[in-house]
Structures are given as structure tokens and as C-alpha cells.
Amino acid sequence: FEGCHLPHLYIGMEYLRTSGWVVAEQFFNHALTLSPSDPLIFNELGVVNFYSQNYERACEFFELALPRNNMYLESHEATLYNLGHARRKLRQYSLAIDCYEKALSVSPRNASVYAALGFTYQLLRQPEQAIEYYHKALAFKPDHTFATEMLQRALEEFAQALTTTLDEFPPLARTDADNTMDDDDTPLNTTAEDLMIVGSNLSPVMGISSANSSSSSAGARVLGDSVSARVSL
Fold first, then answer.
1. pTM attached to this predicted model
2. Nearest to 137 by CA among 128, 126, 148
């Protein structure tokens, strides 16, 4: 349709899905000239820049999309999630956490947002908080591969930190209560299972395979006639 931006937008999305970042960006930019206020275009341009590792530019596009798509909750949540990833890549961890928490306020049962929060806290060397969020992710999506793998790593980090902390304490003098124990009594070993914290998906538009992965494929969530692409951890 002459003057309609949607064909250019959807063609760009197809190139985005097949990792054709450069061509996708060209179609998105042309769509933007035809419809300069469509938040979906800004989101897609943010995704292109994210996968081009231009994270600051990605943040700019996601920020432009947010005030324009706040009437469409699912699309708004996807953009918040994407912005959180871009902030995390820039090591702006507090801003990333804020974005993820806002995304949860829109979609409180989204396992991938909980997993993203867990990963961010793990990068902050706070494994206890990471464990809690990974458990919440798995409560909503038990087969969430990324949360499962990273939970095991967080448990190992937490156990190691706990052991290091205990090693810093000097030995305690025996008390009368201690003397009532049999000489062969030994303290129980703390296992990973003991350290698990009971907690509570973005339904990922893109799969998450590893902590440091920068997936080259894009997925999408359908919202009416629109589709919002989302980036991966």
C-alpha cells in the first residue's frame, strides 16, 4: 500500500529474524520516515543496534519506544526487558534491575524476567539474591534452561562464599554443652540442596542458551497486528 509503513516494517522483521541486521535496519529506517511515531519501529531499531553491539544507541531507541507504547502492555513489557538487557551490557546494573522490575509490574509471571534479574545479581556477585530469582523463574517455567544452568552456578558461588566466610572465623573454645557431644560427632556438610531458596518467563521471544551468549536469532511476540522483537541475555 502506497504510503503505508507496515510492509517495510514486516520485511525488516523477517531480515531481523534471520540475522540480516544491516538490511533490516534499512527497512526499519524507511518505515520510520513513513510513520515516525510507531513505537514498534523504535523497538526493532533498538534490537538491531543491540545485536550490532551498539548498546548505547540501542538504549536510545528503546527509550524512544517506551512512552509511545505504554498503552500496549505486552509491547511495553518487551521494550522494558530489552532496555534492561542493553543497560546490563553497559554494566549499568542498577538501571537494568529497575527496567526488569518495571517489566515484572506489567507481566508478573514472566520467567525470563526473573532469570534476567537473577543473572544481573549474579554479575553483581550477589549469588543469594540470584538464587532467589532463578527459583522464581523455575517456579513459572520449570524447563527454563538458562535459569536451571545459572542456578547451579549461583549455588556453587554461594557455597564457596559461605565456606570462605566460615574460614575467616577463629575456632571457638569448647563449652560444657560441647562436651556432652560424642567425640566422633562432626558438623554436617552444607550441600547445594541445603542452600536452595524457595522462590516464586519473557516468555522468551528469544531462547537463552548461556550466560555469555549473544544469540544471533531474534524472536517475537504477537500483539494484535504488531510484533515486538526481544533480545536475549
1. 0.71
2. 148
Contact 148, 132 (CB under 8 A): no
Q: Is 105 exposed, middle or buried (0-12, 13-18, 19+ CB in 10 A)?
A: exposed
Cell numbers describing residue 57: 544507541
DSSP code of residue 219:
E
Bridge partners of 229, per DSSP, are: 220
User: Which phi-psi region, left, alpha or beta, contains residue 3 (left: φ > 0; alpha: ψ -120 to 50)?
Assistant: left
Q: What is the pLDDT along the chain (233 residues), one digit of tens a residue?
A: 567 999 999 999 999 999 999 999 999 999 999 999 999 999 999 999 999 999 999 999 999 999 887 777 788 999 999 999 999 999 999 999 999 999 999 999 999 999 999 999 999 999 999 999 999 999 999 999 999 999 999 999 999 888 876 666 555 444 343 333 333 332 222 223 222 222 222 223 333 333 333 333 333 332 223 345 677 77
Q: Which of 49, 82, 57, 63 shows the shortest CA–CA distance to 219?
A: 82
- Of 131, 121, 118, residue with least CA distance to 199: 131
- Taking the C-alpha atoms of residue 142 and residue 186, their distance in angstroms, rounded to an integer, is 36
How far is the CA of 185 from the CAs of 32, 53, 80, in angstroms?
Answer: 72, 56, 53
Q: How far from 29 is each of 12, 24, 96, CA to CA, in Å? A: 9, 9, 27
Contacts 24+ apart (CB under 8 A), 209-216: 209/145, 209/146, 210/146, 210/149, 211/119, 211/122, 211/146, 211/149, 211/150, 211/153, 214/51, 214/53, 216/19, 216/51
Phi, psi of 229 (to 5 degrees): -75, 150
